[in-house]
């Protein structure tokens, strides 16, 4: 560790600026094109707006890190300088600026800092003309709740000045410690603390035995993104998985020109590998910032909703949950598969709006131990973010405990609980006014009985509103649910993470207790086509958007 010290007050500048009108955080922070963030004062304005939204006693210490995408390093240097000028006393930064999203959450909790800043646009592509993002996590390690993001947005609309310490850039290449004025700046290993956390959650000696005896094997695709170093440390060095288990494990600032989204469309090579003789017992991928995961078996894909339900079913074999689950939660559009397991276990299952921040209070209050979303996110009470590597360790533990294949685990699960046939149709790059008109049309349907004339299978059309059971804050207009006979659903909402135009998401869930639907090779798109056709009719998708088919189906 090296150490430098210099006076700070002489270097502080108060920079005049103008507000930008587009800094409203979405589902997960502010996401824009890199070129937008590169505008003069743009990032600085937003960072100052964050700090101005925090009470003084929450502006003491800060973790800073990102997924390494283009503009990560520059952004970190700007944030360091603004944090110094705003009186922060301790800054902890990942080496090379790298920290996965769950690793930031873990560091905040382990080091007990006031909060953290995460730089990522998640699964969106990176590079000079692609996407960048920033979000604030609170002292529990949880994404800022809506009340705080609203305050940040309000500040961003009236900001006239930000404060910045004019110092040399901090060298992020080596783990080091610097003292500048009253502030300690620590550049820390990106993986170590997170690896310690995983050691606390799982039985590493048992899992290594599984790899040594070939009971376990893995194909993990890091998608040229942040999880490469984490996977190398945990799966290869600590668990003894073969080095060839890792694919695309060197982080690149443009993700090698690919789309680091762990799903059937963007992790095609992994899917192909899992469909051949090279298949490992478990196939998995994670996204740009390491919070999402996709789970595959030999020749089988596990929907994120089913993954949550299966982890819930087997939770007690995971050391983290040996004492049993307090409860579980899923976002509203996530399938009801986990609800059926929760009912069987006699525990509560909460239904929240889309966005990991809505799980924060439930986890903090110990009402839930496990939660997940259809958008390839699963997480536990060890951090306050979804966690891709952790989900892989959950599945390895379940495979080892049961001695079954992924296919067999799913077959057994569906036999007992029925199956939610599930997929999501995304309609991308719609003009925002057209998308809003479509949602207005659906809102109007909720307020009338006009849906009675659309199809006799519809039992209700509702706009989803959530009252947080802990702080009683209310979040309205969180998507439209079309309830159908037998518990099936069609859901519509606009994405809050896109960076150009609007994306309409149509989620289809067909609940089946017909054993013919338990075939893992079933074509889900075909099996849910009647629901899709009804969805087009209910929302008048083609009329409002001009689109006859979805841009992507996952
Ligand atoms: C973020 C949020 C998730 C949300 C997902 C999709 O994930 O953390 O809670 O489910 O976006 O949101 P939307 O449907 O609004 O696009 P990530 O991985 O992008 O940070």
Write up this protein.
This protein has 554 residues and is α/β, with parallel strands linked by helices. It folds into 3 domains: 8-190, Alpha-D-Glucose-1,6-Bisphosphate, Chain A, domain 3 (3-Layer(aba) Sandwich), CATH 3.40.120; 194-417, Alpha-D-Glucose-1,6-Bisphosphate, Chain A, domain 3, CATH 3.40.120.10; 419-553, Alpha-D-phosphohexomutase, C-terminal domain (TATA-Binding Protein). Helices cover 32% and strands 25% of the residues. It has an 8-stranded mixed sheet, with helices on both faces. The chain has a 6-stranded antiparallel sheet with strand order 21-24-25-26-20-27. It has a 5-stranded mixed sheet with strand order 12-11-13-14-15, with helices on both faces. β13 and β14 form a beta hairpin. 1,6-di-O-phosphono-alpha-D-glucopyranose (G16) is lined by residues 27-28, 122-123, 291-292, 354-356, 373, 375, 377, 495-497, 505. 1,6-di-O-phosphono-alpha-D-glucopyranose (G16) binds at residues 27-28, 122-123, 291-292, 354-356, 373, 375, 377, 495-497, 505.
Describe the secondary structure blueprint for this structure.
Blueprint (H helix, E strand, L loop, with lengths): L4 E2 L5 E5 L13 E4 H4 L4 H12 L7 E6 L5 H14 L4 E9 L2 H11 L3 E5 L11 E7 L8 H11 L4 E5 L10 E5 L2 E6 L3 H10 L2 H9 L5 E4 L5 H12 L7 E2 L20 H7 L7 E5 L6 E5 L2 E3 L1 H10 L13 E5 L5 H9 L2 E5 L7 H5 L5 E4 L3 E4 L7 H15 L3 H12 L1 E12 L1 H15 L11 E6 L2 E2 L6 E2 L4 E5 L4 E6 L7 E11 L11 H4 L1 H11 L1 H5 L6 E2 L1
Parallel strand pairs: 1-9, 4-5, 4-6, 5-10, 11-12, 11-13, 16-17, 16-18
Antiparallel strand pairs: 2-8, 3-7, 6-7, 9-10, 13-14, 14-15, 18-19, 20-26, 20-27, 21-24, 22-23, 24-25, 25-26
Helix pairs in contact: 2-3, 2-5, 10-11
The structure holds 1,6-di-O-phosphono-alpha-D-glucopyranose.
